[in-house]
TrEMBL record:
A Pfam family matched in the record: AMP-binding
Domain (AMP-dependent synthetase/ligase): residue spans on this chain: 58-198
Family label: Belongs to the ATP-dependent AMP-binding enzyme family.
InterPro entries: AMP-bd_C_sf, AMP-dep_synth/lig_dom, ANL_N_sf
GO process terms (BP): fatty acid metabolic process
GO MF term list: medium-chain fatty acid-CoA ligase activity
Coiled coil: none
Signal peptide positions (record): none
Name of the protein in question: AMP-dependent synthetase/ligase domain-containing protein
Amino acid sequence: MSKSSLHPSFSVHGKVISLNDLIELSYSFIKEGKEFEKNIGEFILDWINDSPTISVQTSGSTGTPKTIVIKKEQMVNSALATGKYFNLLPKSTALLCLPATYIAGKMMLVRAMMLGLDLHIVSPSSKPLEGVNRNFDFGAMVPLQVDNSIENLHRIKNLIIGGAPISTALRNELKNVSNASYETYGMTETITHIAVKPLNKGAVENIPFSILPDVIITKDDRGCLVINAPKVSDDTIVTNDVVELISDTEFKWLGRFDNIINSGGIKLNPEQIESKLSNVLEQAFFINSVFDAKLGEQLILVVEGTANVASLMKDIVAENVLSKYEIPRQIKTIPVFVRTESGKVRRRETMTLLKA
């Protein structure tokens, strides 16, 4: 990346940072900083070197974690698109509370450097606003962090949330928060989000995602989202996300194609069933299947922790929110689910615990 592209207004904790300052700060982080600071320092040095690309690790939540190579120019384009959408001006304040090991944290750094933001860095803990006494114009969190920061979210004017599904309970809590919170849709391959939807400020229930500028969306013959975003990806991205296209610029996410369960010829979407059950169960859960000689796949409910299975099944039936095919044939419990760093449940790995 061109070293001259560092915005002259870029600052860290209120102090304007020149290129030399940035290099010095990075080495300081690497030599003397905590682990999350070392990751920040290493990324910044990678960012300002002469290579036109950077290697990024995927989270592995929907498959095996892998390293992909992204053009720095495309990361800049993504940062500019976010800046335009959220009206982030030079000297706007931004909070970095995500690890710089993954794309979301890296992009917060790129946005700050390219847009001239005043970046404030805190540990990427589950309670990032604990002890923070100032306000920010922009921030990004995973749902777990948001859930633990509800009382202080008013400190972040515009908050984007991604990395893991947002529970119905959290969605309801966010409606009463005075800031503007947005759910994002994206992945490492799209350099974070290519679509957003508001979660409060009068947002309509079940509102679709709206795509950012310079993004074209279609569906393939499976009903999965296809993304053409030339400013952030050289390739057309074919996802495994089943969607409903509302318009050329809007879509509703329905679930993962690779999670669909075929039980006796009936195709069942786990994410849709989970959405219906979200007000019935307080603890973490997901829908999956086990082999069945007659049906092929038998629908089951997997619950984290302990549960009174008979009582829970009775409650599910009594709620009358599921069709007869969507009612789990069995309820299984697992003490602790396997999760990604962002809190997303790794379904396949968790199911191996059940079968062990």
